[in-house]
Amino acid sequence: MEKFMNMQRRKNYFIERLDLGQDQEAVIDSTFKSVVLAHIAGNYMKNVNMPLFLAIQGYPGEGKTFQTLKICMESGVKICYISGAELSGNYEKDSILDLEENYIRACNYFASENVPCVIIIDDFHLSPASTKNGVGTTVNSQILTGFLMNLCDKAKSIEEYRTPVILIGNSFKDVYEPLKRDGRMDFFTWRAPLEQKYDISYNLFRDLLSKKEMKQIQNFVESYKEQPVSFFKEIKNDIVKERMRCYFNQSKNIDVGRSIFELDRINTYKVDLQELYELAEKRLKSNYQYSYEGKCDGEN
């Protein structure tokens, strides 16, 4: 323990506050919630041989990270959030030094405060633990996979130093096979159901559409049911960006700082359902990219 406490202080990845913004009221899928909480609770229970790692995989933009963070936050679980890209580095062992210290910090926090913690590594498929298209392993990738394997194996016998880990990525097919072995890692594949897309779209557009048109929001979602959750969120962002562009186009002697308060009202500007369809088609034709097209009122 003394060795752990005397380690060089590195970056603290624990989240003290999580601002979910407009997604605060988003509905969490009950199956997703039960899988995440069962993994966390199971790792703290005695006489339960739960794998240390839970790998959540699925198409990008389907709310894997958002739901995991929201579930943990609302369930009293302290979150240590690390991006997979941050596990890279210029020198040997850079891939594990921050992870190692934050893991120890999580274990000590539970021991002292009796508050469960979870390590969340996002975009794990982009971390050094994953090799793609036949690219050979690096020193850091070998060190990271070795550290993770050692961590989950030791966690079975050293109860004092055990904190559950959730890995989030699009696919884990390129992750080192021994790390994915039974007993080390459980898998949960996620694809947002249509009902969740209904709920999210309702929350996104209820202040922008009339009550009459909101009754047709399910038809709109069904027209693009194969698209990820992020597709509908980006349509909302496209509306806001168009309103902002037109605002600045029509304004003279602009003071951006003062304009921000006025711009906040843009979120309440009404649109019609036809505009949503037009923006959706525009996104599909432009390969999911927003382009500044069309003219504002009074624009040449």
Principal-axes geometry comes out as elongated
Order of helices and strands: HHEHEHEHEEHHHHHH
In the CATH scheme, what's the topology name of the largest domain?
Rossmann fold
Report the sheet-strand fraction.
Answer: 5-15%
User: What's the CATH architecture of the largest domain?
Assistant: 3-Layer(aba) Sandwich
The neighbouring-strand order within the major sheet is: 2-3-4-1-5
CATH superfamily of the largest domain: P-loop containing nucleotide triphosphate hydrolases
* Unreliable sequence segments: 1-8
- What is the number of helical segments per DSSP (H or I, 4+ residues)? 11
Describe the largest sheet. Answer: 5 strands, parallel
CATH class of the largest domain equals Alpha Beta
Question: Percent helix among the residues?
Answer: 40-55%
Measured between the Cα atoms of the first and last residue, the distance is: 70 Å
Q: Structural class of the helices, strands and pairings?
A: alpha/beta
Descriptive tags:
ATP binding, disordered N terminus, AAA family ATPase, 10% strand, Rossmann fold, five-stranded parallel beta sheet, 300 residues, alpha/beta, 11 helices
